[in-house]
Amino acid sequence: MRAHCSIMLAAAAALALAACGDRKEAAAPSGEMAVAGLQTPAAFADITDAQERAAALFTEMNKVISHPRCANCHPRSGGPTQGDDMRPHEPPVVRGAGLGAAGMECFTCHGDENVEFASMKGSVPGARPWHLPPPSMGWAGAGAAQICAQIKDRELNGGRSLDDIVAHNTTDHLVNWAWNPGEGRKPAPGDQETFGALTAAWVEAGAHCPAE
Ligand code: HEC
Ligand code: HEC
After folding, report:
1. Ligand 1 atom closest to Cα of 158?
2. Positions in the chain whose pLDDT score sits under 50
């Protein structure tokens, strides 16, 4: 199969992509159990108790949610953090209404796209509009049970229904950035399609939360 794919690739890259399938398309339909370090809903299908299955699905989702690519933008207080060690943002920036301080807004430095540093390895992350959610949507450093309760709570989650959360996780472009984080940054585990599928399966199983 591998040889077949590479011959096709040599012949016509576009055709080969269609024939061999890219990683995303292969995820759910083929019944794959994991994509790039993130388990798919198929891996949880044999947990018959819905409450248990939902809790296990959320625990898996939390590998993404608590990953620094997401959590750096979801602090519970203060401003954004950066890097895998989630150190304070350099230069220090304030939250303001989410967009930063007047004259030092996030978009002063963060554009619509990631931009590689000219003089050294790395990049300024970018996606539009790059900003912080309100503190009620903060979860950096919190446990899975607490994050799960926050995400479900319409008083805290921006008035979103569970279906809205599925849509957000599946299609939001700031969420998407976590898998396209630019030069010098590790992406979140899995891909957005698998993360969205896990969220949908969690909601379908009753959106129960893990005990801790
Ligand atoms: C650049 C900053 C940024 C990044 C990176 C980011 N988010 Fe968010 N997120 C936001 C903002 C801003 C909102 C609030 C949007 C609104 O309500 O208008 C939000 C809202 C949310 C919400 C809905 C509100 C809630 O918390 O209940 C979820 C869920 C969420 N983000 C998940 C994620 C996940 C998962 C990732 C990583 C895969 C991620 N976000 C990455 C900025 C970010
Ligand atoms: C003065 C320029 C500047 C301003 C203003 C600024 N940033 Fe940054 N930010 C950067 C640079 C540069 C980096 C990349 C640092 C690195 O990787 O070495 C960065 C990195 C980040 C990261 C880290 C992503 C990761 O996962 O490592 C987040 C999150 C972030 N900024 C959010 C914000 C938010 C939200 C605002 C507005 C409240 C903001 N920034 C304002 C320059 C800025």
Report:
1. 17
2. 1-27
